[in-house]
Write a structure and sequence with these properties.
About 85% of the residues lie in helices and about 0% in strands. With about 150 residues, the protein is an all-alpha fold. The chain has one domain (about 5-140). It is globular. The protein starts with a helix and ends in a 5-residue tail after the last helix.
């Protein structure tokens, strides 16, 4: 993959994939506390992952591409691209769907409860992981770290 645009797209996809698995690992850990058997907890995890794959993946990729890429381009032009700015941008992009769902009155855990704070924190951490993954896979970063092959 020599073309920067293709590598940038792969970076977005990989960042979303890593964030999704980070989020589901925490959801699985919480779900495993409720169920008595590992099979029931694993079944709940696979059901949640399947539903997200059908409905959530297109939405998260769209939001990441429409919000995250312009933020990256603007930060790159300003010379502000580093691990911290990408992680903070990842947190902001990850919390956008939370705000959208809240405005449409979806049943989200309230931030005044422990479960709501936990869920909000995990979504934010998943965004930070996505931003950091994106930073490590971006074309400029990966090309400068690898030796030139002729």
């Amino acid at each position: 993959m020599q073309r920067p645009a293709l590598r940038l797209l792969v970076s977005v996809c990989a960042a979303n994939f890593v964030a999704m698995n980070f989020f589901f690992a925490h959801m699985y850990a919480e779900d495993a506390k409720i169920h008595e058997t590992l099979e029931a907890a694993l079944g709940g995890y696979l059901e949640l992952a399947g539903l997200f794959a059908v409905f959530g993946v297109p939405i998260t990729f769209l939001i990441s591409a429409m919000l995250g890429l312009p933020l990256y381009v603007a930060a790159k032009k300003a010379g502000l691209v580093n691990l911290w700015t990408c992680a903070i941008a990842g947190i902001c992009v990850a919390l956008v769907p939370w705000g959208i769902l809240g405005t449409f009155n979806w049943h989200l855990p309230s931030l005044t409860t422990g479960q709501g704070i936990y869920s909000f924190t995990i979504v934010g951490l998943a965004g930070a992981v996505a931003g950091a993954t994106f930073y490590w896979l971006t074309p400029d970063r990966s090309q400068s770290a690898l030796p030139a092959v002729r």
